[in-house]
Design brief:
Order of helices and strands: EHEHEHEHEHEHHEH
Radius of gyration: 17 Å
CATH class: Alpha Beta
Shape: globular
Oligomer: single chain
Number of domains: 1
Number of helices: 8
CATH topology: Rossmann fold
Number of strands: 7
CATH superfamily: NAD(P)-binding Rossmann-like Domain
Strand order of the largest sheet: 3-2-1-4-5-6-7
Bound molecules: nicotinamide-adenine-dinucleotide
């Protein structure tokens, strides 16, 4: 019960890594505040979590809006009386292609969804964590934010995910004395909606990894559980790879 009675916000909880994290954290005893855009999926996940004897509440919204970040923190206080941790995980890949031909709207959307959302989240989560004497914040970056070899056409995504590592380091420095730990998780290729369902694409992505396979969302959720729980109590400012060795293969 690594998160026993801890209140945790998870964004991007309607599918993939976020949904797997919701179930993993619920099994670890957390009270959950779930965010994403699809209300029906969030409702279904809340029921599933209640069925296993844990508590969850959800609010659908858009992480590109600061008001939504504030509302999730408010909901944590209203429903559970406190905030202990946040897994800021929502993200999009955007349209891939060379920078010379990239539509600026695509660039702005990817940065807003993946990076500016993290600033909004931290801005509203930090005061709520501080009130309780500290806590933990985690951002989902990507192996693409660390080593981009082998995957051309992902400039906006790579910039947003590398930006999260910089934000993590700055926040960890600024708030270490508040007992707030801030880390980034860098998953490798993971079998979610984002990776599509084309077997040839999956085989290509799998082959980039030293382990020669993609991750399941549950494997990434376990790494997130570690970084948000007291099991990682001396880990802050880190960009932790859970990438099946893709970075050592691609260098
Ligand atoms: P996914 O598409 O299943 O999940 C993305 C989630 O983000 C969904 O719940 C979606 O509703 C939410 N989301 C997207 N835009 C949003 C917005 N504007 N407002 C609110 N919610 C929004 O994919 P996933 O793989 O589970 O992605 C989760 C995170 O993991 C992302 O940040 C992604 O970049 C990162 N990641 C994924 C992989 C991979 O191979 N799948 C690898 C490394 C990192």
């Amino acid at each position: 019960m690594l998160l026993n009675k801890k209140t945790v916000i998870i964004t991007g909880a309607s599918s993939g890594i976020g949904a797997a994290a919701a179930l993993t954290f619920a099994q670890a005893g957390a009270n959950l505040v779930l965010g994403a855009r699809r209300a029906d999926r969030l409702d279904a996940l809340c029921s599933q979590i209640e069925d296993i004897g844990a508590s969850a509440v959800s609010l659908a919204g858009d992480v590109r809006e600061e008001e939504y970040a504030a509302a999730l923190v408010e909901l944590a206080g209203f429903r559970f009386g406190r905030l202990d941790a946040a897994f800021n995980n929502a993200g999009v890949m955007g349209t891939t292609g060379p920078v010379a031909y990239m539509d600026p709207d695509n660039w702005h959307d990817v940065i807003a969804t993946n990076l500016t959302s993290a600033f909004f989240a931290a801005k509203h989560q930090i005061p709520a964590l501080r009130v309780n004497g500290g806590g933990a914040i985690l951002f989902t970056s990507s192996f693409v934010g660390h080593t981009n070899g082998g995957l051309p056409g992902m400039a906006a995504y790579a910039a947003s995910k590398a930006g999260l590592i910089g934000l993590t380091q700055a926040l960890a420095n600024e708030h270490g004395r508040d007992n707030i730990r801030v880390n980034a998780l860098l998953p490798g290729g993971t079998r979610t909606d984002m990776a599509g369902d084309d077997p040839d694409t999956h085989a290509f992505i799998a082959g980039l990894h030293a382990l020669d396979r993609m991750a399941t969302p549950e494997e990434i959720a376990q790494a997130a559980l570690f970084l948000l729980s007291a099991a990682s109590s001396f880990v802050t400012g880190s960009a932790m790879l859970a990438d099946g060795g893709v970075s050592v293969r691609l260098g």
